[in-house]
TrEMBL record:
InterPro entries: ICL/PEPM, Pyrv/PenolPyrv_kinase-like_dom, Pyrv_kinase-like_dom_sf. It comes from the Bacteria. SUPFAM superfamilies: Phosphoenolpyruvate/pyruvate domain (SSF51621). Keywords: Lyase. It holds the Pfam family PEP_mutase. GO terms for molecular function: lyase activity. This is Isocitrate lyase/phosphoenolpyruvate mutase family protein. The lineage of its organism: Bacteria, Pseudomonadati, Pseudomonadota, Alphaproteobacteria, Hyphomicrobiales.
Length: 256
């Protein structure tokens, strides 16, 4: 498939009640394994990609290296590849769009794009984030590329007390509406774990909703019933693999 065809196929995989499952990867090797396991699409996790290359999360990994990793994943697997692009490696809309274009040029058909202030505090104002999304969409349209922009809000991740998530719903709805109007393709609400709140967001959002698996999220069957369209695993696969590697290594060295 061409890059455009992959992007179109990727968008069609987002079905409410029949969610796309993304077991997040971090390099060409993990892409190959997950592809062979039967995945329908691939998605990187920023934390995992950074850690696998010796960097911390938060756009510490150079954009040039992220682009190379994207290319290696794209040529290793025939599947559509979405890249966790954090805050776009810039603040100004035109600069963000230019950076996204670089990732597209290396094979990405979709991105996660978050509203948190990378390296700062809180989240960008709705108007600011909408302008950034709009610039990305306009760039993609000029390229005749149906880029899947998974617009992420960090409202719930930044509130560690899940008992307070209920009061964040109205703000989340406003962001989902504004991001959709600006050209987003999906709405990502990592950190949201309560079943009733997940269902409320799915019912309210005009965009397909993405939820990230955490220890307290409902199981995948339940999330499908709640109306989720995309389920991702974030850094969990990387942590599992590295935990196994460490355990095997410790067992070996403790014998000597």
């Amino acid at each position: 498939m061409s890059q455009v065809e992959k992007a179109e196929a990727f968008a069609k995989l987002h079905r409410k009640g029949d969610p796309l499952i993304l077991f997040n990867i971090w390099d060409a090797g993990s892409a190959k394994v997950v592809t062979e396991a039967g995945a329908k699409a691939l998605a990187t996790g920023s934390w995992s990609v950074a850690a696998a290359n010796g960097f911390s999360d938060g756009e510490a990994i150079p954009l040039s290296l992220l682009a190379v990793i994207t290319r290696l994943i794209s040529v290793t697997s025939h599947l559509p590849v979405s890249v966790d692009f954090e805050g776009g490696y810039a603040v100004e809309p035109d600069a963000v769009a230019a950076n996204v274009e670089k990732i597209m040029d290396h094979g990405a058909i979709g991105i996660n794009f978050e509203d948190q202030v990378v390296g700062g505090r809180g989240v960008h104002p709705i108007e600011t984030q909408a302008a950034r999304i709009r610039a990305i969409r306009e760039m993609a349209e000029r390229r005749e590329m149906p880029l899947f922009i998974n617009a992420r809000t960090d409202l719930f991740l930044q509130e560690s007390d899940t008992a307070h998530h209920q009061i964040l719903l109205d703000e989340a709805y406003r962001r989902a509406d504004a991001f959709a109007e600006a050209g987003a393709s999906g709405f990502f609400a990592p950190g949201l774990v309560d079943a009733e709140l997940i269902e409320a967001v799915c019912d309210r959002s005009s965009l397909p909703v993405n939820i990230m698996v955490r220890p307290t999220t409902p199981d995948n069957v339940t999330m499908a019933r709640l109306g989720v369209s995309r389920i991702s695993y974030g850094p969990a696969p990387y942590r599992t693999v590295m935990g196994m590697l460490k355990s095997e290594a410790e067992g070996l060295y403790q014998q000597t």
